[in-house]
Amino acid sequence: MLYSKLFPKTLKQVPSGAESVNHQLLVRSGFIDQLMAGSYTLLPLGWKVYLKIENIIREELDKIGCQEMLMPLLHPRDIWDKSGRWSDPNVKEIMYQFKDIHEREFGLSFTHEEIVAYILSKFIKSYKDLPVLLYHFSTKFRNELRAKSGILRGREFIMKDLYSAHISEEDMWQWYEIVKKAYVEIFKRVGLDAKVVEAAGGVFTKGHTHEFQVLAESGEDVIYYCQKCDFAQNQEIYDGEKKCPRCGSEIQSASSIEVGNIFPLGTKYSQALGVAYQDENGKSQDVWFASYGIGMTRLIGTLVEVFHDEKGIIWPESVAPFTVHLVGLDLEEESIKTEAEKIYKLLQAEGVAVLFDDRVGPSAGEKFSDTDLIGVPYRVVISKKTQGKLEVKKRNEKNTHFVTLEALVKMVR
Ligand code: ATP
Ligand code: MG
């Protein structure tokens, strides 16, 4: 991609009203644009990061046998009446509900349990049809009161939600653990160290759900976790113990961002929406459910909250919009321009994703502050001084060094 053609360019000023780091940096660097509180466009750079994350998740979920689909966002009231959630005061606070001109009532999706159960009620007949794990990436709408944390909290945001259906509680828990492991792997690949945290919000049995929390000063949540083992609980259910109930070590607390949440749901939705299967003896049984969410756009914001410095974003390589930011300096000199263009094409031919700052005019300082702001992992400079070599600097390191094209390609692969 030529930087001269990239839409839009970086901004010099912090946008007014942008309080959080992710909001400021993502807007200034041209990754997102705000429509209103809690509502953002993912601009071309932001969309590239989004797709990288989406692909990682798709790979990990498909690996364990999940199937991707896409469900509608406009839901008729009667399906939500079946579970009783349409009239639940807590739901009414966050769900956008309205009538059309024919007085028909609709809601905008803030989650999809009812819709999945409705679909399964049509197609699940026998124990042979189970288990089934279905997911989609799609928009969610929530009437959030506090929509001030940039893309960490949207009124309209993208979620990956997965729903699993099972013949028994035992099968549900078995898959719950498989998905939990896949989630840990997903966050690791995205570059984040997410803690698996016990949380409130369960609808049956002992009532635990599990959240995936990333430590960050700006996080709205507080978690308590063991210094030694993997015990961790959300503040909402933490009973104040100073020592870890599992290993006796010190408990410490920290602010964190919830990037994912998984819920064992039991048979609540299958009973409400009539999702049943025939067991081996021909007897009708309720289907067991669990659901699993990842905040896609919140993940992008979390990455920025965790990986930035005073100059800009520092993307992990696995999700960066480009791998190399090639900066051409002294491009008014024909020989340098020709060389820079040649390197740009050669890198592309090697399959390296390159953003090439091909602008003639801006100073080296201006170009470097743009590369630091955008946060591509490798900055590669070609100028009068580099004399046929490539000057490389990693975004998260101070030192520059000179390499050949072959060495660079090896380095970034
Ligand atoms: P929170 O406690 O932050 O309001 P939640 O517990 O209500 O979130 P879930 O219903 O568990 O959210 O949704 C699954 C995931 O979707 C969350 O773990 C989070 O990463 C993401 N998410 C939830 N609400 C929002 C939002 N308003 N904007 C962006 N992402 C969100
Ligand atoms: Mg949650």
Structure description:
With 413 residues, this protein is of the alpha+beta class. The protein folds into two domains: 3-309, 2-Layer Sandwich (BirA Bifunctional Protein, domain 2); 324-412, Anticodon-binding domain (Rossmann fold, 3-Layer(aba) Sandwich). The chain has eleven helices and 23 strands. The chain has helices spanning 21-28, 44-63, 77-83, 89-94, 113-123, 169-190, 268-273, 296-306, 334-349, 364-374, 405-412; strands at residues 32-36, 39-42, 67-68, 74-76, 97-99, 105-108, 132-141, 156-166, 194-199, 209-215, 221-226, 232-234, 251-266, 276-278, 284-286, 288-295, 308-309, 312-313, 324-328, 354-357, 378-382, 390-394, 400-403. Strands 3, 7, 8, 9, 10, 11, 12, 13 and 16 form a nine-stranded mixed sheet that branches. It has a five-stranded mixed sheet with strand order 20-19-21-22-23, with helices on both faces. The model has no long low-confidence stretch (mean pLDDT 97). Magnesium ion is lined by residues 211, 258, 261. Adenosine-5'-triphosphate (ATP) binds next to β8, β13, β16 and α8.
